[in-house]
């Protein structure tokens, strides 16, 4: 049996086309166990499950900045109120948080990070006062 030659070379017989291989069933791949013994490794988890609350807040703040907006705590004129030692200034900052577009993310981040000062309209207090060590005299 002689092969016919086309412009690109010899053509295979019609019943033996190399790219027409079809498997009867798709191959099943068994997932590997993750670090805790479960079948889902961290690489297979949805991306939002890996992102921390702080990362989500940072992303939302960047999105606001891209739209030309910023929350009140980022305003140059009064951003110091959120970290002030004065209780009245922190109370003013907490009131200004109302209606903030990232309020929920800010609250989650503050809870995860254990933040001080004003976050999401809540005054978490200030830094504890450091006590100086004194020598005991006898």
Instruction: Tally the beta strands.
Output: 4
Share of helix, binned: 25-40%
Our estimate of the beta-strand percent is: 5-15%
Strand order, main sheet: write it out. Answer: 1-2
Mean pLDDT: 76
| Cα-based radius of gyration, to the nearest Å | 31 Å
Distance between the termini: 115 Å
Helical run tally: 4
Structural class: mainly alpha
Q: SSE order in H/E notation?
A: EEHHHHEE
Describe the structure.
This protein has 138 residues and is mainly α. The chain has a domain at 53-123. Helices cover 28% and strands 6% of the residues. The chain has helices at residues 47-50, 53-66, 87-96, 103-113, and strands at 5-6, 9-10, 118-119, 122-123. The strands form two sheets. Strands 1-2 form a two-stranded antiparallel ribbon. Strands 3-4 form a two-stranded antiparallel sheet. β3 (118-119) and β4 (122-123) form a beta hairpin. α2 (53-66) runs antiparallel to α4 (103-113). The longest helix has 14 residues, at 53-66. It is elongated. The model has no long low-confidence stretch (mean pLDDT 76).
